[in-house]
Write a structure and sequence with these properties.
The chain has 382 residues and is mainly α. 83% of the residues lie in helices and 0% in strands.
């Protein structure tokens, strides 16, 4: 909790942490209205799927160029401009008048989301280097907190009765708070790095981190999409309990991120990734028991295990020798988002061809592989 106290007591750290919350407040508010947008534009599920694909396409389009833009602009300025852009782009999908303007709006929303994601993670990496303070994990906790705040905002749907006004209210809250805070990081730039020619030796540790990121975020995406169905069809849980797996996962994910930095300072980034993977392995074993309450507890353990891994991967990737922090973070974010988007449909195919249990056996195998890869990471870091 030391890093959480640090954030709450010092605007130098609270300012970037609030950017994390801001990103998920706006994204979560948009997500609430996806069914409404589908109904208003009279599009079917497949068309909606293609439109949402354009959001992902926007994210992946910006990744290759984001690092250069951030380095040229300065990471502090890039983060602030990212906040402004996400505030503008967050409203656009709800203003779409037809299917094609929706695709264009979601592409822009995805691109600004991806850019801000890389900028804010680079900013925290640079602050950690400069101040010798660990708060990356707690900053990611604020991202999870932003999702919780967006969920609580769903209670405003009936009160406001207008998706655009609801989003504008969220934008106003995000923008006003960021306006009062952005000067704390605006002038921060990445520390100069000695230029080295590209070599496979430099890239190898980043590749290992990217593989871990792909599997962890793939697991997150799978649990978001499949935990309810697993409880319904495999555990035969009553309807009232179908959402508890994801809720337990989300609570421990948020809590673990607020606790992760102190543990990381004591045992180091690689060991905390190993520890997180062991906790996740135990969680998957509990899920495979198929007993309802044990399964729910298993999802909670997976959330706790995963909570500390992604922030540590950004921390490790932002400190790979010979590679600029923004480039390392962009690569990790790109591989992570790939896993988040690709894993659910792949596991869905496995579930259709065999069983949902097999999908979670594969996820268990990925968690074991993550644990084994920490030994490779340890050697690379040494």
């Amino acid at each position: 909790m030391k890093s959480l106290r640090l954030i709450l007591s010092n605007p130098r750290y609270f300012a970037p942490a609030w950017v994390y919350a801001s990103l998920n407040i706006l994204f979560g508010t948009w997500a609430i209205y996806i069914p409404t947008v589908k109904e208003n534009l009279e599009i079917d599920k497949s068309q909606l799927g293609i439109a949402i694909f354009f959001l992902s396409l926007g994210v992946f389009t910006i990744f290759p160029m984001a690092a250069k833009i951030i380095n040229k602009m300065g990471v502090g300025k890039a983060t602030w401009y990212g906040v402004v852009l996400i505030c503008v782009s967050g409203v656009l999908p709800l203003l779409a008048t037809n299917y094609y303007t929706l695709m264009a709006a979601l592409f822009f929303f995805g691109a600004t989301h991806g850019f801000t994601d890389i900028a804010m993670n680079t900013l925290v990496t640079e602050l950690e280097k400069e101040d010798k303070q660990n708060f990356m994990s707690a900053a990611h906790g604020f991202f999870s907190l932003g999702g919780v705040l967006a969920g609580l905002g769903s209670f405003l749907i009936l009160l406001i009765g207008n998706p655009v006004l609801h989003m504008l209210l969220a934008v106003a809250i995000v923008l006003v708070i960021n306006l009062s805070l952005y000067k704390n990081y605006y002038r921060i730039v990445a520390a100069p790095l000695e230029k080295r020619p590209f070599s496979l030796k430099l890239f190898k540790p980043l590749l290992v981190i990217g593989i871990v990121s792909f599997m962890v975020m793939g697991g997150e995406g799978a649990i978001i999409d499949w935990s309810g169905l697993y409880l319904k069809e495999i555990s035969l849980a009553p309807e009232a309990l179908w959402g508890l797996g994801f809720l337990a996962f989300s609570i421990t994910m948020t809590t673990g991120r607020f606790l992760g930095d102190s543990l990381s300072q004591r045992i180091g980034s690689v060991k905390i990734v190993a520890l997180g993977s062991v906790v996740a392995i135990l969680g998957y074993l509990a899920v495979l028991s198929t007993q309802t309450y044990v399964v729910i507890f298993g999802f909670a353990l997976i959330g706790l295990g995963f909570s500390v891994i992604i922030p540590e991967l950004f921390r490790i990737g932002g400190n790979v020798k010979g590679i600029e922090s923004s480039q390392g973070i962009a690569f990790i974010a790109g591989t992570g988002y790939s896993g988040f988007l690709m894993a659910p449909p792949i596991l869905g195919f496995l579930a259709d061809s065999s069983s949902l249990v097999l999908s979670f056996v594969v996820l268990l195998g990925c968690a074991v592989l993550i644990f084994l890869l920490t030994f490779v990471l340890g050697r690379k870091k040494a």
